[in-house]
Design a protein that fits this description.
With about 280 residues, the chain is mostly helical. The chain has twelve helices and no strands. Helices cover about 45% and strands about 0% of the residues.
Length: about 280
């Protein structure tokens, strides 16, 4: 019986190993609301250690001066307001005095703060309202304050928290920017931001939380180039890396007392570690 053998093709058959499937990076686990609240509260505790001297950065001696200064602070710096208000309050120390001011004369005094015509109109209106409706006294209720010309929730909360000891959350541009970077909320509307943050923290923390967040935003977590490499809460920040991460370069971005420069107030609180700001014209 004849046998046949397979013909040789002359080609060597190689054993091909099956490629291992590539590892797919797991998407970061979504943070639960409870975990976010815990992280947010830890950030607040850390900021309290970094800024134990946090305070309102407007110079004032009474509720009326704080109300006026806060209205003036729109679209300008607290420093510019602090440099302007000494002359303003020397000319108009009370609501009655300010309500009787000649508009053109007030405009010249507050011109450095910008939008001086609109601000003059607001100051004349709120001073007249204080004189006529509140006996020349600043009211201590939010619902009364927001009825005054030029006064919104932000201004009202500043006055309530710092002149009357009534807890309030101040949502300015710095506060809104940071709470979104920290993923506490993605809301843009200040009233909605205020409501969300109010649900995260006990009422007793609202005023000081506002100061700490604003301090951090002005000194380290800047809008355009945050100093991530010099940030004491970097491990808690989901947006770490948006700014400069090199510690030496980040250190050069620090502002005010963190960078060894003057603060925004001419009249400093006793425990403030920085230098007082220069008077108008002395920069």
């Amino acid at each position: 019986m004849s046998s046949s053998t397979p013909a040789k093709s002359g080609k060597t058959t190689k054993t091909v190993k099956s490629a291992k499937p590539a590892k797919v990076a797991k998407a970061p686990k979504a943070e639960s609301h409870l975990a976010m609240v815990r992280r947010a509260r830890r950030i607040n505790r850390e900021l309290a250690e970094v800024y134990p001297y946090a305070h309102p950065e407007l110079d004032f001696r009474n509720p009326f001066e704080l109300l006026v200064a806060t209205v003036l602070s729109a679209q300008t710096t607290d420093l510019r307001v602090n440099q302007t208000t000494p002359a303003l309050f020397a000319a108009y120390p009370t609501p009655e005095d300010m309500a009787a001011a000649v508009p053109e004369e007030m405009e010249e005094i507050i011109r450095p703060t910008g939008f001086f015509r609109a601000k003059t109109k607001s100051l004349l209106g709120l001073s007249a309202a204080l004189r006529d409706e509140f006996g020349g006294e600043v009211p201590g209720r939010l619902e009364d304050l927001v009825k005054l010309p030029g006064v919104g929730r932000k201004t009202a909360n500043v006055v309530l928290g710092n002149a009357f000891g009534v807890p309030g959350i101040t949502v300015d541009t710095h506060f809104g920017r940071l709470v979104r970077r920290w993923k506490w909320t993605d809301e843009e509307d200040p009233v909605k931001v205020e409501a969300v943050v109010a649900g995260i923290f006990p009422k007793s923390e609202w005023t000081m939380l506002s100061h700490r967040v604003v301090f951090h935003g002005r000194r380290i977590c800047h809008a355009r180039k945050p100093a991530c490499g010099a940030c004491p809460i970097a491990p808690l920040c989901p947006s770490y890396g948006e700014g400069e991460t090199d510690p030496e370069k980040a250190g050069k971005l620090l502002k005010y007392e963190m960078g060894g420069y003057p603060g925004q107030r001419l009249s400093l609180p006793a425990d403030y570690p920085g230098k007082p700001a220069p008077a108008l014209g002395a920069e």
